[in-house]
Design brief:
8 strands; 157 residues
Amino acid sequence: MHHLVRSGAVVVAGLAAAVALTGCGSDGAKSDSDPDTADAHTSAPADGGDSGSAGDAAALEGTWAGVSDGKAVALSVASGRAALVADAHVCSGEVKDMGKVMLALKCTDGDTARTMGAIASNDGRKLVVSWNGGAEDTLAKTDPGALPTELPGLPTP
């Protein structure tokens, strides 16, 4: 029972950090006041696909949540930075273009299961990340400023 509460607390703290991270970033919308800088952060996909393809780093912006192997996973991306909470591990790092869009993270507890991830697909609503440690996470985009609901291990109000 204590493990469940402790895991829930870690997930809630990580999700709060992820929401705070994306609250400070851009939602990818263009600004009418400065058209030159509005396009500066949007680049063509590396694989030549559409703007929602796996190759578009700007399409990762926002907060994503899901369940992998029965455990909550939350990813937040803002301004090229990424934060991840998965299975009581808290990781942060960068979105990198290595010929394809990758997440390069370092976990605070030294875990290495989710330190390098390739974006397998991203349609703007569903994101699939394949991790170097063998895990594959399927995540759904969450509403800005809202914590995801129905994740296992979270305390209910």
